[in-house]
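Morning, I've got a small favour to ask if you have a moment. You're getting the sequence in one-letter code plus the fold written as tokens. Thanks so much in advance, here it is:

===
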Amino acid sequence: MDFTRAGVALAAITGALALPAAAQAAPLYADAVLEDGPLTYLRMSEAAGTTVLQDSSPYDRDGNLSGAPVLGAPGPFVDAGTALGLAAADTVGASVPVASASVELWVRPSRLARNQQAGIAAHGDPSGDGWALGIGTKRKLAFKTGGVVLTSKVSLATDTWTMLDVTFTDKKVLVYRNGVLAKSLNRNGATPASTSGALVLGGNGAGAFTGSYAGGLDEVAVFPQVLTDGDVSQHFTAAHVPINTAPPTVTGDLTVGATLTAQPGSWTDGGTATYQWERCDADGEDCEDIVDATGTTYVLAAADACGTLQVAETMTNAYGTGTAVSAPTGVVAGDCVPTPPGDGTPGDGTPGTGTPGTGTPGTGTPGTGTPDTGTPGTGTSAPVAQPAAAGCLRIASVRRRTRVRGLGVVKLGRVASGCLATPLRASVRAKRGVKLGSVRFRLDGKRLARAKRPRFRVQVAPAALTAGSHKLVVKLRPRGGKPRRAVVRLKVAVG
């Protein structure tokens, strides 16, 4: 008699007795996973004090706890039982000496600050023939293999359970979130072989990420084959948690002080809904929870100006929870709040050149930005306020065309010789054959409204300029290439 399989069957029967009546007649999640032949399947339902996690597959590839993980935490759905809670210093290790092509797991990540990363899982050496999955730049899911990092635009809701599936070949990496394909990434390299066989859950993804995972982890399965769309969907459906069929939407005026309203999404097996508003950058990326913003409405604050918003809707029924996130709003109008240090926007390290006005001398302060290191510079030229009696403001000098090597030209619109009465217009023209993904403008360290395709234009209101020297930094990011920046300096005088 196969006692391993008998034990799995007995566990399934015992679990079914505790399920609501409707779920007893439906396939169990564990059954759906085991039918697809995982290389290891760690359900993490052991009692507190255990140091070994039993493998529910036939291969006895148990997991060994390192650090002080917490067993017995609430799981993501009824059939899952309890889950594992990890701190940043905690990991789970196992030996899986067979190449993998898919990983499936339920995660409940703790909140990450801006610029923080976290490994989630790794099999083998991600700098060699292994792979690693984690939360990378701008808090988006990333996959590393052969030393190459592929960053998606897929985010995970914080403090909320999500079923995550990632499959990979020599040509593709597919990322699924809650049973639905969220992103397809192209790659060109050998299929991961993971010859070391070391499976690590939590930590920094075997060195692939700069930070370590903290939060809930459950139902981890690694497969030798690429799971199909049907396989992933079947697994998620077997959990019986609410399934989103249309995400929530956001309505309302995009001005500071206005009220935004979350319009509910559509769900099957729905229940009770809760909400979490998130603040994002102007591109709808790098989103973070807004503290205490958990209602169906949200009043836009000064900190939201020049950024975007989105709302996460979490639906809970008798079996578990499901989460769906709205599309980002447009850019919120208002005076931009300077981005605090550590947001990953590089400074250019160019000192300010405060120029004396015709009245009070200028007081330009040297900048301290570090070129292209992800640390924002703080160098700005302090404009010098002028007495009203000194006369109107005019542009004293400016370079109207600035070339950005290999990418294009930054152009300033024609400036009248008289007093400033109309906005100063800036735009970017891409070089022939170059496709730009985004263009960002900052005036004296403050981010201007997002410049949209195809002409990437912005306007600087006369009220934003005072007598003295100003610096307009333009960052061009091509599709599939490295970003470059241009600095346009202009002097404003009185009279």
User: Anything to note?
Assistant: Confidence is low (pLDDT under 50) at residues 1-26, 339-390. The chain has three domains: 3-238, 244-325, 339-495.
